[in-house]
Amino acid sequence: MMIWDFNFNLPTSIEFGNGKVKNIGKRAKELGGKKALLITDKGLAQTGILQKVTDSLDQEGVNYIVFDEITPNPKDVDCHRAYQQFKDKEIDLLIGLGGGSSMDTAKAIGTLLTHGGELRDRYGFNLLEREITPLICIPTTSGTGSEVTTGSVITDTVTKQKEAILDIRLAPKLAILDPELTLTLPKSITAATGMDALTHAIEAYTSNIAEPISDALSLYSIELIAKYLPLAVENGNDLEGRKNMLVASLIAGMAFNHADLGAVHAMAEPLGGLYDTPHGVANSIFLPHVFEFNIPSNPEKHAIVAEKLGANKVGKTMEETAYEGVVLLKELARKIGIPDFRDLNNINPEDFPFLADGAAVHLCTQTNSRKVTREDYLALFQKTYEAKNTTLI
Predict the structure, then answer these.
(1) Which among 176, 247, 129, 246 has a CA at the least distance from the CA of 30?
(2) Residue 348 — left, alpha, or beta (φ > 0 → left; ψ -120 to 50 → alpha)?
(3) C-alpha distances out from residue 178 to 79, 253, 280, Å
(4) pTM greater than the 0.85 cutoff
(5) By three-state DSSP, how is residue 156 classified?
(6) Quick check: 136 and 29 in contact, CB under 8 A?
(7) For residue 2, is pLDDT > 80?
(8) Are 381 and 355 in contact (CB under 8 A)?
(9) 71: closest CA among 109, 111, 104, 93?
(10) Residue 379, Cα to own-chain centre: how many angstroms?
(11) Which 3 state secondary structure label does DSSP give 92?
């Protein structure tokens, strides 16, 4: 069922194109930035990508401090540590450079700089009282879409669950997307982040609160990823593939920011919280199985997704076309080197009840295409563990 009563807000300005990172200094000044906190990870800090940003800031006379201690699946303790370290440094601009972890951490630090207190007091919908410190996001992966979303996902180190701050006041003021910054991305990260973007697009399209604009964005993203992700993984220097993957990630982020996500994320985030599993890998592993589980709820939409992935509907029923999508998702995972669930480090089936508990109360469960219970999640964790995700059904 299509929802025709909706609002669509895009509070973030977007600059896209080769070499656009050189504009960061000018844009920082336009936002009134006199002292920026540049948030990134140590890997990027050791590449020329960071220098491109700092050179531009230097050229425009914008002072900055580099915080390069970001880790995958960002932790609340790291955000609080950064806040304590920089709260008295007169920071008036944030720059998130890197993947989703850097950008989500920047949003969380911005929340603390403007609100103080504890992050756990802000988990949920619309609990901010004011806009965060102005934020510019510069993604260097094609996966999360965090540069245009109004959410920040943080791992609570006490509960070992991922939590989310969801508020339009988190929105970055500007997203600068430069395809050239993604050329150095390793194959494994290209694959995992690309599948993350695909999951965003599929779950947004099949969400029970999807609407026409999110549908249009989702379908184009799926089409681009199906065509260009294998190319980007095979040849990371293919700028055409990198450009299209960055667009696909961007518009998938716009789509799910309005239509939300589903059971794949409800499963992947507890897994990441407990095991520190890379988010894109977790999504890749669960995607075919949740897609198959959801087909009965909306065969038409799942068949359309399957067609975008390359399914041939000639001579097939709608349901048969949709189920071919399961096969194609597994083929894609195999082709780009996604591991099986059981091959991940430290996975223990005895933890599945804990993971199912987390999935059942996850916000994305509410917007999944099909109603899903704790028992369904427990069965899906077990099924995924027993299956070879990269073996055709």
Answers:
(1) 176
(2) beta
(3) 26, 16, 21
(4) yes
(5) strand
(6) no
(7) no
(8) yes
(9) 104
(10) 25
(11) coil
